[in-house]
Amino acid sequence: MGACPARAGAADDERVHRIVGLRSRRAAGRAPRDNALGALDELAAADPSIEVRPFDRYVDDGNIITSAGVSAGIDMALHLVVRLAGPERARQVRRGIQYDPAPPV
Question: Model's pTM, two decimal places?
Answer without folding.
Answer: 0.67
